[in-house]
Amino acid sequence: MTTDPERTCVGCRRAGPKSQLHRVVGGVAGRIDVDLPGAAPGRGAYVHPSPVCIEAATRKGVLAKALRMGIGPDELGTLRDILSQGAL
Fold first, then answer.
1. CA angle 37, 35, 52 (to 5 degrees)
2. How many domains does the chain have?
3. 84: left (phi > 0), else alpha (psi -120 to 50), else beta?
4. Which residue has the higher pLDDT, 82 or 5?
5. At residue 85, what are phi and psi to the nearest 5 degrees?
6. Which of 18-22, 26-30, 56-60, 77-81 shows the lowest per-residue confidence on average (mean pLDDT)?
7. Dihedral (C-alpha) 68, 56, 47, 23: value to the nearest 10 degrees?
8. CB-based contacts of 76: which residues, under 8 Å, 6+ apart?
9. What's 55's domain CATH number?
């Protein structure tokens, strides 16, 4: 029997099963993407798909700091939209 590994949400800082969080990855050429399979190369951060966690992760540069890269306001808006859809 295998257990789902735990990851910490950058928004609320609570640990939870990896399967219940979305991975955001800072990839090549400074582009950020939502990584559904969890296998994309690059530095990743996890966030719950709840509006509260998404907002907490994207404000004040918390997500940018976790990814160790700058994120523009347009990218943050797009990322908020994608994550808030929930059914990626």
1. 115
2. 1
3. alpha
4. 5
5. -65, -30
6. 26-30
7. -40
8. 58, 63
9. 3.30.1230.10
Is residue 1 included in any domain, yes or no?
no
Amino acid 84 reads: S
C-alpha–C-alpha distance, residues 79 and 84, integer Å? 8
SS3 31: coil
Inter-residue contact 25 to 43 (CB < 8 Å)? yes
Domain holding 55, by residue range, is 6-84
60, HSE (Cβ side, Cα atoms, 13 Å): 7
Which strands make up the sheet holding 22-26, listed edge to edge?
32-35, 22-26, 43-47
Residue 46: Cβ within 10 Å count: 23
3-state secondary structure of 56: helix
Place of tokens 């590994």: 5
| CA atoms of 62 and 58, how far apart (whole Å) | 6
